[in-house]
Amino acid sequence: MLDGTTAEVVERKALRINAAKTCQPIGAMYAALGIHSCMPHSHGSQGCCSYHRSHLTRHFKEPVMATTSSFTEGASVFGGMANLTQSLKNIFSIYNPEVVAVHTTCLSEVIGDDIPTIVRKSKEEGSIPDGKVVIHANTPSFVGSHVYGFANMVSGMVNYLAEKTGTTLNQVNVIPGYVEPADMREIKRLAAAMGVNIVMFPDTSNVLDGPLTGQYKMYPEGGATVAQIKSSGDSIATLALGHFASHVPAATLESKCNVPAAFMELPIGVGPTDRFVDALRSYGGVEVPASVDLERGRLVDLMSDLSQYFHGKRVAVSGDPDQVIALTQLLLELEMKPVYCITGSPGNQFEKRMHELLDGPVPDAKIKQNADLFELHQWMKQAPVDLLITNTYGKYIARVENVPFVRFGFPILDRAAHRFFPTVGYAGAINLINQMLNAILDKKDRECAEEWFELVQ
Amino acid sequence: MSSDIDILPSRTASIAEAGRAGGPMKCGKVSVAGSVSQRACVFCGSRVVLYPIADALHVVHGPIGCAAYTWDIRGAQSSGPQLFRNSFSTDLQELDVIYGGEKKLERALLELIAKHQPKAAFVYSTCIVGLIGDDVSAVCKRVAAATSIPVLSVASEGFKGTKKDGYRAACEALYKLIGTGDAAGISKHSINLMGDFNIAGESWVICEYFERMGVEVVATITGDGRVDAIRRCHGARLNLVQCSGSMTHLAKKMEAEHGIPLKRVSFFGIEDMAAALYETAKFFGSEELMERARAVVSEEVAKIFPQLRAWRADLEGKKAAIYVGGAFKAFSLVRALRTIGMTTAVVGTQTGDADDYNQLREMCDPGTIIVDDSNPLELAKFCLEQDIDLFIGGVKERPIAYKLGIGFCDHNHERKECLAGFVGMLNFAREVHATVMSPVWNYVPRRARRMPNAECRTANDRGEEAVA
Cβ–Cβ of B446/A214 closer than 8 Å? Predict the structure, then answer.
């Protein structure tokens, strides 16, 4: 399928081949699922909603609920007001969520539907029952990427829900970024181990990694409650993990409720996790407990045990910008060489930060925002790598180039257990190192000449 | 087991029960605004139908999402070119929305055609293209003239109807190809296979049966499809239409314009597969063909029958729910399930029409719930009320079924086993048997309670509601 990929890079101005991103609304839908008892609502054609649900279902292997305004030609001419009003009425009367989180699509954005006005009118007309909440985010598909959609919906949570009462609560906000339920679970576990009271939103753990119970719950146990998000305005500080997914909502909360924001990176790798743990320690006013030190010690021990296998290995990475920035730090800690690093999302901060990280240790690294997997593949044709780390879509390249491959990020459509294993925190690094080592050594064991085939590694 | 889920008042006319009188089903409408519809859009309809044409270029003109969500998701296999599995998009940005995307599209097409030398190109319009008013047809014409290959505009703006309208738009685009090739040398016993998409290699299985009968398959539309075969497919003497929803429009056009009759067939289940072969032989009026069809059927059935009988012993009396795209598949599944001793207690489709639902009412056992354009809550409610053992559906239904402790068989894009033909019946039965009889259900409260000596305490024993 990728036979046509050549090493020679031709400048493309009008074409995206094998994209490393998708559109804003799916990120907004994913974020909304991290609110307890929330129905994400897609204001657009019914195809958008169906695609996002299918895609999220393929990634999480879990039911994903969302409603749609089911636009028709009429709505696209006269505006989607009637559809949204009718939708809100139907959603509350039949699905009875606590919150409806509306996101727009390219269609409703171009039509120019004014969501706050429509919601206000619906409220006046009584379509939104008392005590129920509707929030929204503008998520035009032709701007940014799914990561931006996620950030916009989290900002929507802040805009609509966060309140300052004047009494500061002994709690720290964490905006976790566009990460897996397992990562959110891990962040909560770390905070609990340290004795820091956190409010995390969104929180998709126990929503998209639920148990099989023989019941179907439209609104599973998990998710940040409206009361929790409301209370975020009274927190001591906000730890915003990731520039692209979390910094804007944290800044919004800072300006709205005067909650100081700590703009951080995703805690992937030793250094980034140390900084996260340290921020929890200082804002939470606690000491780092021995149990967390032990976790860190076990990770560093593993890194020392395995350094011989990772040293100098050339790595190609594609993923969401916050993930790539953090993962690169883990790779450098292992003395690997991230030679090609791309993200499909646009945004200058990616290249700026990546150059800071790589200009010293890997001066010839190629770094690109707003790139696609076709281009990454072309680079790999020019000079090969020892390891490829991308979402599922890298599998085509891994196969044709016969490169050890680790799936990382969103989406992973062809494996299942990623939702249980974090990549953040010390435990997450252990998981990633394990996967990378297995990928590299499995290839060696499979392909090396018999005299080089070793029992003990 | 009952559930306390309500049905939206506006949905009641889209639900019926076999064996009970009622008015015509309300169907073929866009979904109620605000429902968790399982349906997709016009673009989706066009994309799934055309995408298996393997030596064509497929370019999605729109923002990135529409291309991203349809990138190689269908498992439609090609015996040759793999070009169609790449994702090509114009990735429209804000400035394109303001100033128009025609230039970008034209440049993208010229670049791609120069690089890949495809036999034809399909350009899919998305919602946004319909709004900003790009003249996609004009771009296609210019590019076709410049490159000397057919460049076909697919009018698939998402909001312009339902998935069915997308099938129609795909048929219109395909129709522009048909009749442009040389139909010389085609056998008098020749057919086109329409509406089979070669998921898990199904077209190959079906073609092999027809070849054994001595029937020439001119074009498979669109599974393992090739542009040149489609261009000359007007030379076939009969169109066999398998997925009634997607291809009937094209087959009817070919009947009107090229005088090629059409037959609706199904390749799922022993009865329907055999009927398709016999009907074809009968159509050609050849006793020789009929003899060979009989030989194929008896050989193939003999291969699978002993194993089917063994599985049937385990599955006898188990109950199934079916929720699929088209009604014709639902008919086949009801029959195929009967073959392995199972009854259908719930059946629904996304795109069935009133006639289809009447037929379902007639063929299903009394009490069977029949539903158009359903949603997860309704489906969960019916599954619990009917105490279902097996759910047959697509990607969005799978995890819901599992959560309820119900076995699942994907009969949609993501099936990994060939389910068509006689060998497909065996695969289907194997898959159904494996999932229905899976030991994992012994650990699920609702199902475990039905087991003798159940050890698990169920959620319901603890007084929780079945569906929250």
Answer: yes
Question: Which regions of chain B are under pLDDT 50?
Answer: 1-3, 453-468
Task: Provide the chain B residues 347-376 that lie in CB contact (below 8 A) with chain A.
Answer: 376
Percent above pLDDT 90 for chain A: 93
Sign of CA dihedral B294, B300, B302, B307: negative
Architecture of the domain delimited by A291-452: 3-Layer(aba) Sandwich (3.40)
Cβ-contact A279, A264 below 8 angstroms: yes
Rounded to a whole number of angstroms, the distance from the CA of A192 to the nearest CA of chain B is 29
User: Which pLDDT value is given to residue B70?
Assistant: 94
How confident is the model at residue B457, as a pLDDT? 40
Q: Do B42 and A47 touch (CB under 8 A)?
A: yes
The CATH number given to B42-176 is 3.40.50.1980
Task: Nearest chain B residue to A102 by CA: give it.
Answer: B34
Dig out the tokens for B234 from the structure: 């007007």
Q: Determine contact: B24 vs chain A, CB below 8 A.
A: no
Q: Is residue A11 within 8 angstroms of chain B, CB to CB?
A: no
Burial class (CB in 10 A: 0-12, 13-18, 19+), A433: buried
- pLDDT averaged over chain A? 96
Given 3.40.50.1980, 3.65.10.10, 1.10.3720.10, 3.20.20.70, which CATH number is that of A24-161?
A: 3.40.50.1980
The shortest CB-CB distance from A14 to any of B66, B104, B404 is to: B104
Most confident listed range (A44-48, A175-179, B19-23): A175-179
Nearest chain B alpha carbon to A77:
B131
- According to DSSP, residue A35 is labeled B
**Topology classification of domain A172-288:** Rossmann fold (3.40.50)
| pLDDT score, position B463 | 37
Cβ neighbourhood burial of B313 (10 Å; 0-12, 13-18, 19+): exposed
A 76-105 near B (Cβ less than 8 A)? 76, 83-84, 86-91, 93-95, 105
Instruction: Please name the CATH architecture into which domain B9-25+301-437 falls.
Output: 3-Layer(aba) Sandwich (3.40)
Kindly report the CA angle at A89 between A86 and A94, in degrees rounded to 5? Answer: 120
Q: Is residue B404 within 8 Å of B52, Cβ to Cβ?
A: no
A212–B405 C-beta distance less than 8 A: yes
- Provide, as residue numbers in chain A, all residues whose Cβ is less than 8 Å from the Cβ of B43: 47
* Helix (H/G/I), strand (E/B), else coil: A300: helix
Which residues of A does the annotation mark as catalytic? 106, 110
Nearest to A385 by CA among A365, A370, A368: A365
pLDDT of amino acid B455: 44
State whether B127 and A19 contact (CB < 8 Å): no
Chain A, nearest residue to B43 by Cα: A47
**Alpha-carbon span B268 to A102, nearest angstrom:** 41
A188 touches chain B (CB under 8 A): no
B401 contact A CB<8A: no
Burial of A258 per CB tally in 10 Å (0-12, 13-18, 19+): exposed
Cβ neighbours of A14 in B, within 8 Å? 90, 103-108, 111
Minimal CA–CA distance to A413: which of A390, A429, A387? A390
B85 at interface of A, judged by CB pairs closer than 8 A? yes
pLDDT of residue B452: 53
* Cα B229-B234-B238 angle, rounded to 5 deg: 105
pLDDT value of residue A394 = 97
Q: Are B118 and B87 in contact (CB under 8 A)?
A: no
User: Which SS3 state, helix, strand or coil, does residue A73 take?
Assistant: helix
Give residue B88's pLDDT.
96
Give the model's pLDDT for residue A226.
98
Please report the ipTM that was assigned to this predicted complex.
Answer: 0.95
The DSSP 8-state label assigned to residue B237 in this structure reads: S
